[in-house]
């Protein structure tokens, strides 16, 4: 086949291509490695010199022409495709927007924030401690040695022999006293863990807020005043509270504070005057310093404040519950 004939056939075939696949097939037929024109160009080597120049020139010209034609045809196909897609995906700017649903703070976070604000205004600093504790800080330093029966009140999840999930926020008392000199007043909110059966008012993980105030003459009367202030400001002037004597190894004397809930008294917090052994463990001289400490259950406060009858709802991840806040 001579160049002129080749040109005619190739052009008509490219024109006939109806889609990118046809076009690619045609390109392979003429310009591909085993294509017709490629064969002509290869065969030049065997031709006489003057024919080599003439046919070579013509073949190369045809090659550029074909390449240009393929390119423009390909672009045309691409444009068509884009136009078709744009038609299908037309954006309707008058369509109503999709509602973005906004979340809200978890009731426990809300309560914690409110409690922090109240204590902040009473001059308390906010401190955090680790959730994974050592046996020493969770028990020994708080006047609960290894064989002490009180350890049974706070069964927990042990991580090996020395580490555990803290059962209360009280270890933060020791950690803070070790590094700071009195007078001071702090609160330490955070998660705590217990290995116990759950019911409407008991969870295996819940939140406490620890308080510690140490000075020269901080007394039980200060404790009562601060707690009453806090609970009234948080829960309203009308709440009913009662203090009763209680026992915790890390305080002497110790008290418990209950609040009236659904006609019965619900235990809200433990408190008392920091035990001399605990002050010593924190590096303070009990003849020089004294103070009070308390540990309040944040979940229980939230239950009363937001009228929730089962503590387990807080951790259920149930949106029907959470959306009410
Ligand atoms: C303590 O944890 C002491 N560390 C509190 C304390 C601090 C006393 C400083 C003296 C001085 P208790 O185990 O009673 O005490 O827990 C304190 C509060 O946490 C309880 O009053 C209650 O409100 C809450 N609480 C206890 N167990 C659970 C539970 N399983 N689920 C939810 N809340 C709980």
UniProtKB/TrEMBL annotation:
Binds 2 magnesium ions per tetramer. Keywords: Aminoacyl-tRNA synthetase, ATP-binding, Cytoplasm, Ligase, Magnesium, Metal-binding, Nucleotide-binding, Protein biosynthesis. CDD domains: PheRS_alpha_core (cd00496). Transmembrane segments: none annotated. Coiled coil: none annotated. Its cofactor is Mg(2+). It is an enzyme of class 6 (ligase). Residues 109-324 form the Aminoacyl-transfer RNA synthetases class-II family profile domain. Mg(2+) binds at residue 252. It catalyses: tRNA(Phe) + L-phenylalanine + ATP = L-phenylalanyl-tRNA(Phe) + AMP + diphosphate + H(+). It is found in: Cytoplasm. GO terms for cellular component: cytoplasm. Its EC number is 6.1.1.20. Tetramer of two alpha and two beta subunits. This is Phenylalanine--tRNA ligase alpha subunit. It comes from Candidatus Azambacteria bacterium RIFCSPHIGHO2_02_46_12. The lineage of its organism: Bacteria, Candidatus Azamiibacteriota. The gene is pheS.
